[in-house]
């Protein structure tokens, strides 16, 4: 029998004899944990810097929907072939604009948990694009020259 097997056997016999002599009912009996784990949980940061970006995007989306509807009612044609069938119907256009706005904000929120800067820049780009669309629609609707 190898020496390491003898040493392990002796350690097991000594440990079992020592544990057997103790009572589990005794309040001072505490078994140390065999394995200790620690989990570092980082609390999600509140979206405070994102709130103005979300609010401005919602306002720009609403303005885009209104200006699109107004331009179509003033005789303009919608260039986006996906929106053209509903551009004249205010209710369907509003539902579509709300849905696409909510999806954009939800995507940014999902991204924000893992990549906050990327989510912020995504909303900056979305706001910039929407500002151009609103500016263009205001010209087409006859509100800007």
- Count of runs of 4 or more consecutive helical residues: 4
What low-confidence regions span 5 or more consecutive residues with pLDDT below 50?
none
| Fraction in beta strands | under 5%
Main structural class = mainly alpha
Number of distinct beta strands: 0
Mean pLDDT: 81
List descriptors.
single chain, 145 residues, mainly alpha, 4 helices, 0% strand
Write a structural description:
With 145 residues, this protein is an all-alpha fold. 63% of the residues lie in helices and 0% in strands. It has 4 helices and no strands. Helix 2 packs parallel to helix 4. The longest helix has 25 residues, at 90-114. The model has no long low-confidence stretch (mean pLDDT 81).
What's a concise summary of this model?
The chain has 145 residues and is mainly α. The protein has helices at residues 3-20, 51-73, 90-114, 116-140. The mean pLDDT is 81.
Question: Helices and strands in order, then pairings?
Answer:
Layout: H1 3-20, H2 51-73, H3 90-114, H4 116-140
Helix pairs in contact: 2-3, 2-4, 3-4
């Amino acid at each position: 029998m190898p020496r390491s097997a003898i040493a392990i056997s002796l350690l097991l016999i000594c440990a079992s004899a020592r544990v057997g002599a103790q009572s589990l009912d005794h309040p001072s009996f505490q078994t140390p944990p065999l394995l200790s784990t620690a989990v570092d949980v980082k609390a999600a940061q509140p979206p405070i810097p994102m709130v103005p970006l979300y609010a401005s995007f919602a306002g720009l989306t609403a303005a885009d929907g209104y200006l699109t509807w107004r331009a179509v009612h003033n005789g303009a044609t919608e260039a986006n072939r996906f929106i053209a069938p509903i551009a004249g119907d205010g209710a369907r256009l509003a539902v579509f604009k709300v849905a696409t706005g909510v999806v954009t904000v939800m995507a940014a929120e999902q991204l924000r948990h893992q990549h906050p800067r990327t989510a912020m820049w995504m909303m900056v780009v979305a706001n910039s694009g929407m500002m151009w669309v609103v500016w263009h629609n205001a010209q087409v609707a006859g509100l800007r020259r």
